[in-house]
């Protein structure tokens, strides 16, 4: 059986929001927001967006995020930008999304910097500028956002707006993985598997694929299944491999289904 390892596609991770805990009642938050408490408006906006404690109303969420953003809440600006980017509760407007992500980033929100970087990397709502994307991913990563580190590492992989530098990729994917980004664990695992920018270590690759898979990363589960199927970096275990391929297949990954069928047929 031939083994394969997948790199996660460049800048494949979507733009994300930030879950928050709600320790106040809806009435208390409404009162706080009416008094001009931007944090109260933001928290209430999250509740309306998700339908937590109130009936879901994305139009109301947009209204509340707008108040939060205008009141200086950087995360509120980012969340509002996401609504404009996706066209949820408001007419889709990528240009407005860029403006709001920039405001969030300038306000110290690292995820806002990452989201803005994605817009520049793709040319969404703004003229494509890989150098600007690189600058913003760097800012996001330095601000502690694991996905920013992943996206920055992904740019290094293909020399996408930056010179290839394997040791830098290793550093960034390590930082991303340590920060909880499954894509960073996957790519770091591939580097150890192939011995790219680091000494080859298939056992380390198994550990990293496991971490990626446990976090719900489909390519990580597929790669882990392949390691078990062949006994690379781990004792061969065809039952465990088939279990992993079945999990990937259930998530509608064609490769996972093919490998599951192959294992079930007894092919090697």
Short structural description:
By secondary structure, the chain is an all-alpha fold. Helices cover 65% and strands 0% of the residues.
Commentary on this structure:
With 268 residues, the chain is mainly alpha-helical. It has 14 helices and no strands. Helix 11 crosses helix 12. The longest helix is centred in the N-terminal third of the chain and has 13 residues, at 38-50. It is globular and about 65 Å long.
Draw up the topology in text.
Elements: H1 26-34, H2 38-50, H3 58-70, H4 74-86, H5 94-106, H6 110-122, H7 130-142, H8 146-157, H9 166-178, H10 182-194, H11 202-214, H12 218-230, H13 238-250, H14 254-264
Helix pairs in contact: 1-2, 2-3, 3-4, 4-5, 5-6, 6-7, 7-8, 8-9, 9-10, 10-11, 11-12, 12-13, 13-14
Provide keyphrases for this structure.
disordered N terminus; 268 residues; 14 helices; mainly alpha; 65% helix; globular
